[in-house]
Amino acid sequence: MKKMKKRNLPTSGTRLGGGILESNPGEFKKFNKNQKQKKVLVGSIIGILLVVGGITLYKTFAFYEEKKEFNVLKGRIPVFRPHYNDVELTTVVEVGDYVEMTPESTTYTVPNSYTGYSTNQTIHPSELNLWRVIRKTNDGKIEMVSEYVSSTAIYFTGVHGYKYYVQTIQDIAKQYENDLYTDGSRHVGYSNQSLIIYNSLSGINNNCWNHRTYDKNWLDGALEPQGCGDRAYKTDVSLLQNALGTLASNKVFTNETGNYFLSTRTYTNEHTSATTYRNVSLYLQVSNSYGSEYSGIRLMESDAEVTSSAYIRPIVVLKSGLKVSGTGEKDNPWKFKNESSKTIKE
Q1: Distance between CA atoms of 135 and 95, rounded to whole angstroms?
Q2: Where would I find the beta strands (DSSP E) of 11-82?
Q3: Contact (CB, 8 A) for 258 and 288
Q4: pLDDT tens, the chain, 346 aa long
């Protein structure tokens, strides 16, 4: 048997070409170097892509978070909140939260001796049972405003209605309390203005002729009680705008916005000639359907008495230590532990 001749296999640094085994270590090194350069180049490209991708991803995420935060503030993206049971309201509530609270009074008659209107008028306080938190006070109490305005408008007429206006809507606001939960109330805009103006129309003119409400951002204490008007209502206007983002509110049970009173008076006059002729207008400040305030409810225009109307929007102050359940969202508002067992006054 013939012995097979052992053949050497090509080693590194050799190549097979033209059927002849040739040795070329220099070219092998060059080839190796090229391979390393290609690897470095590919690694660099991948690294650059990773860095660019990371920066892009970060910016996209940051933009998304910023846009999300903006949309959350605008109410466009729902933020899911945990459901709590039987916890103290002050420990979980946030400004803007929804609270369910039913006023005790179901009906209230507004006397025409206060409004100057031709007849008495009736409202239904218990219809407003959904509220929004607008402030947490330092002493642990919570202020909240009705989410909606009353279904019924209240009419005021002339000088008499102007003089008794603040007293009237404060009395109305009190009807939206509930002894189990509330510790006070006011109508939107009230900030210790004079409840009643005791001046006659001529007295108002004599004291206020040179001090129209629009002339100053704030009228001093000596002029407001004379019937010259005030700007104290802006405290509540700021509270609502900061907490809710708007002053606009729908009439309860409808999708229609309702102009509601702001607890303040406005006095204006005009010089119609070089003489001392006085063209006097008395207004009640209101919030309009666009969510801003304006003095559009006239009770006297060009020295003639006028009848005008707007809706009611109360603010109530909650007692401290109240226990609630819910999430504080519109479809699951904070509910008081014994809300279902409340007593309703007729």
Answers
A1: 6
A2: 14-17, 20-23
A3: no
A4: 555 555 554 554 444 444 444 456 666 566 566 666 666 676 677 777 777 777 776 665 555 555 555 555 555 555 678 999 999 999 999 999 999 999 999 999 999 999 999 999 999 999 999 999 999 987 778 999 999 999 999 999 999 999 999 999 999 999 999 999 999 999 999 999 999 999 998 888 888 877 666 555 445 567 889 898 888 899 999 999 999 999 999 999 999 999 999 999 988 877 554 445 467 788 888 988 777 887 668 898 877 899 999 999 999 999 989 999 999 999 999 999 876 444 434 3
Decide: helix, strand or coil at residue 167: helix
Quote the distance between the C-alpha of residue 110 and its chain's center.
30
Residue for token pair 């466009």: 76
Ordered by start, the domain boundaries in the chain are 25-79, 84-341
Please tell me the distance from the alpha carbon of residue 337 to that of residue 155, in angstroms, as a whole number.
37
Burial of residue 169 (CB within 10 Å: 0-12, 13-18, 19+) is: buried
Amino acid (1-letter code) at residue 176: Y
